[in-house]
Amino acid sequence: MNAPTQTDLLAVTLNRLHLKNPILVASGTFGYAREMQPFLDFSKLGGIIPKTITTEPRIGNPPPRTIETSAGLLNSIGLDNDGIDLFLEKHLHYLASLDTALIVNIAGRNIDEMAEMASRLDAFQNQITALELNISCPNVSGGVDYGTQPELTEKMIQQVTESCQLPVIAKLTPNVTSVVEIAQAASQGGADAVSLINTVQGTAIDWRRRKPVLGGVFGGLSGPAIKPVALRVVCQVAREVDIPIIGVGGISNIDDVMEFIVAGASAVQIGTANFYNPGLATQLVGELEQILLEEKCSQVSELVGSLVYPKKS
């Protein structure tokens, strides 16, 4: 029997979304990709997710916008971006020219705005692979409204999927009582997959000055500190909701990748680690291939959700 090729080993399918491998780079940590060109070969990635775009340009939150923590990064960027018009004019052609999937991350102030953006982007199906809906940003006004109430989540996903033919991913927040309920609502609304998780809401305080450190006061915590939370959420959703999962949160090495895959993620996103090791994502592709060969797997999906839970007494 012939050994599986890299294409056979690493290719993943998340409903209508097909990727050549499961290693993606997370929105907000990769700019519009041009910034990262000196550091890695884009063609080796499973996909690129540029920074979130909104209908109108946003200047973001007042500085300071980031602060390092003992085990990660706290950010209050506030969705600073060029807006959809300039994205289409300045960035789309370049991003689409890269030999990898392009997943466009969008955020709207309400359901109609999100659906309208999806409809506009649907006209570029030959360049855009899928949409990721950011309904979970913790550092903008109204950023998580549609990701914290199941009925609103389902309604938004349904309206977006009716407005475009592109595969749709819902990026969900951990800042709720039950992410499982939100993931179920996203599935019922027609999402092809869910990204778990966005950042965990936090803050930093300068006690001597009696002031918050971040200009936006509250921000989103990312990096190794949130990996246990992200893994917990992936495990819970994988066990209770029949929807493909993209794992996000604190991934910085191949063991982290494998933990998310075994927990139930069909793909992963590299986020904060891009800031200090911009070539990590492509390195992980090669390391993942080696592990699959060592495990004698014919495709990565064989390990997805293979975690064995202890029997209940």
Keywords:
single chain; 313 residues; alpha/beta; eight-stranded parallel barrel; four-stranded antiparallel beta sheet; 10 helices
Poorly predicted runs are none
Percent in helix: 25-40%
- Please give the number of β-strands: 16
Mean pLDDT: 94
Broad structural category:
alpha/beta
Cα shape: globular
Order of helices and strands: HEEEEEEHEHEHHEHEEEEEHEHEHH
Major β-sheet strand ordering:
3-4-7-8-9-10-15-16
Describe the largest sheet.
8 strands, parallel, barrel
Number of helices: 10
Beta content comes to 15-25%
Radius of gyration: 19 Å
Please give the alpha-carbon distance between the first and last residues: 43 Å
